[in-house]
Write a structure and sequence with these properties.
Layout: E1 3-6, H1 11-22, E2 27-31, E3 42-46, H2 52-59, E4 64-67, H3 81-98, E5 102-106, H4 118-131, E6 136-140, E7 144-146, H5 154-161, E8 172-173, E9 175-177, H6 178-187, E10 198-200, E11 210-211, H7 212-222, H8 234-248, H9 256-262, E12 266-267, H10 286-299
Parallel strand pairs: 1-2, 1-4, 2-3, 4-5, 5-6, 6-10, 7-9, 8-12
Antiparallel strand pairs: 8-11
């Protein structure tokens, strides 16, 4: 079986390639630049989601596409349209033209409330494209993903070392370890009853998710510190996003668009969209998972 993958050099994509490598399953992956230490079981296709020739090469002879690539953060709201919407459309069209039967799309919980952010809106549009494709499809909406190689939560771990972890206004969120998410995506490859045509919202198995304060406290314990957890108001976060823009320009992480969904109080995975246990179940509890992430950061001198 040829497994075609986008986003192979990203946080989640690398974890999926790790799972495939452990199972000795070959993959073909799209990348803007081929990694210097490319795995022997990975055939790299150089290109992007806007490069139709590269997409055609990626999906040729494939039996499944796992579409992970996408833009998550930008200071310009117009930037989300091309990779997340048009890129998904072009990949779907390439898959259909090549006769690829199966398509697994990694969306986001942000798609559940598209009015909150341009990012969420772009993911919602992409979901619509996938659902209308006529392919054998499954959509996965991960909550906050953490684990080795993650740069988004790294700043929270760094802050915890100083004894403070600032969080959005009070609310709840689900979490999932990147290895669990990767194993889910691989488990979905065959499709079938209970999987095809479904939109799943996986998590770590912790019913009701976690409060923002609980997440911060767990990160503190992961780095061996008791932390103070200030909840920042929307106005404060918006001011900080403007400051981040001035300091880091288009590399800013705390963008105005990201603030839009950060302040939403409910990013808990919907139990009605749970993955059937016969297909997959999370294996990594969150508390030890966060400690393992901190160890990885230290070992690789990120923390």
């Amino acid at each position: 079986m040829t497994i075609a993958l986008t986003g192979g050099t990203g946080f989640v994509g690398q974890a999926v390639l790790d799972v495939l490598a452990r199972a000795d399953r070959p993959a073909r992956a799209l990348a803007r630049s081929v990694p210097k230490r490319a795995g022997s079981r990975v055939e790299w296709i150089q290109g992007s989601l806007s490069d139709r020739a590269a997409l055609d090469e990626l999906v040729e002879g494939a039996e499944v596409v796992i579409h992970i690539a996408g833009l998550t953060t930008s200071t310009d709201l117009r930037d989300f349209e091309q990779p997340n919407v048009s890129g998904t459309f072009e990949l779907v069209e390439a898959a259909k033209a090549a006769g690829v039967p199966r398509f697994v799309f990694v969306s986001s919980l942000a798609a559940r409330a598209p009015g909150l952010s341009a990012y969420g809106a772009s993911k919602a549009k992409a979901e619509t494209i996938v659902a209308a494709s006529g392919l054998d499809w499954t959509v996965v909406r991960p909550p906050a993903v953490y684990g080795p190689r993650d740069r988004d939560m790294l700043d929270l771990f760094k802050a915890a070392r100083w004894g403070v972890v600032p969080m959005p206004p009070e609310g709840r969120t689900s979490l999932i370890h990147v290895h669990d998410l990767a194993e889910l995506l691989v488990a979905l490859i065959p499709g079938g009853e209970g999987v095809t045509g479904e939109t799943f919202e996986p998590d770590d198995g912790h019913a009701g998710g976690w409060t923002h304060r609980e997440v911060a406290k767990m990160i503190g314990r992961a780095v061996g510190r008791r932390v103070w957890v200030p909840h920042l108001s929307r106005k404060t976060l918006e001011r900080l996003s403007r400051l981040d823009l001035r300091l880091r320009g288009n590399k800013a992480k705390l963008t105005a668009d990201r603030v839009g969904y950060m302040v939403h109080p409910d990013w808990v995975a919907d139990p009605a969209r749970k993955v059937p246990q016969s297909v997959w179940r999370p294996r990594g509890p969150t508390r030890p998972g966060l400690k393992g992430t901190a160890r990885w950061y230290r070992k690789n001198k990120w923390l």
